[in-house]
Amino acid sequence: MTVLKPAQAPPVRAATTAPVRRPAGGRVAAVGLPLLGVAVTVTVWWLVTSVFDLVHSVVLPPPQDVYAAFSLRVPRLLEHTLATTTSTVAGFAISTVVGVLIGLALAGSQVAERMFSPLLVALNAVPKIVLAPLLVVTLGWGQQSILTMVFLLCFFPIVLSTVTGLTSTPADLAELARSLDASRWQTFRKIRFPAALPQIFVGLKVAMPLAAIGAVIGEFQAGEEGLGYMTLQFSGMGENSAAWAAIVLIGLMSILLYFALVGFERLLLPWVRETTSAR
């Protein structure tokens, strides 16, 4: 009698998972596409002002005139760029600290949120340019008025994003903390605040360009240096090309500060890109 043996399955080899790497083309596109966008913008600017003459040079000088004005004033403009960058970063840092603390207070107390949220909305709705002369009268010329203007422009998105992030903790994580009998501080430190960080960074990225705007407005009204001050001076002297050179530097400064913040977010929160569809 022949005994049939059950067929044996072929041996299964251990699966090896290679680490997921970002393709080299993605890195090239991350740098090349923004540069291509700048090149297209400058080309359209040149066509509009030089080739087709659709805009008068008093309103918008050609890019070659702006470059010539910049090249004649490089040390001076870079010195004032440093002053504006310092005011922007300092005001943004103050707004971040105060905005997050206010957001923590509002998120931790429903009574406080109902009491002060309408006041914050009203303060944010007031045009900040209206407050500029009052800041000069109250705080005088110089850095205090400029930093206050930066704070007034960019603290509200930080407060709003902090409250939103802290009040939208995923339900499963909150239930996990309760099941482990975690204290309120442990829940905040281990779950609520880390889960709120992506939303907080949304507010920070909205606030960063506003900080640059606030610094320039402050320099218009109360500054003795900076790109806003130089733009006003050049415009008053009829040097429109030099004024546009200062405006271009303001834009470049804002771009660099914004992407520095994005890089810091990716460094601090690497798990966000791994657990979401963020690119």
Look up the CATH topology. MetI-like fold
Low-confidence stretches: 1-20
The DSSP helix count reads 11
- Tally of separate domains: 1
Outline type: globular
Mean pLDDT comes to 85
Mind telling me the C-alpha Rg?
Answer: 26 Å
Q: Structural class from helices and strands?
A: mainly alpha
Strand content: under 5%
Look at the structure and name the CATH superfamily.
MetI-like
Major sheet summary line: none
The CATH architecture designation is: Orthogonal Bundle
CATH class: Mainly Alpha
What is the chain-wise order of helices and strands? HHHHHHHHHHH
Q: Please tally the β strands and state the result.
A: 0
Instruction: Report the helical percentage.
Output: over 70%
Distance between the termini: 66 Å
Give a written overview of the molecule:
This protein is mostly helical and 279 residues long. It has one domain (62-275): MetI-like (MetI-like fold). 78% of the residues lie in helices and 0% in strands. It is built from eleven helices and no strands. The protein has helices at 24-51, 63-72, 74-108, 110-125, 128-139, 143-166, 171-179, 184-222, 227-236, 240-268, 270-275. The radius of gyration is 26 Å and the shape is globular. Mean pLDDT is 85; it is low at 1-20.
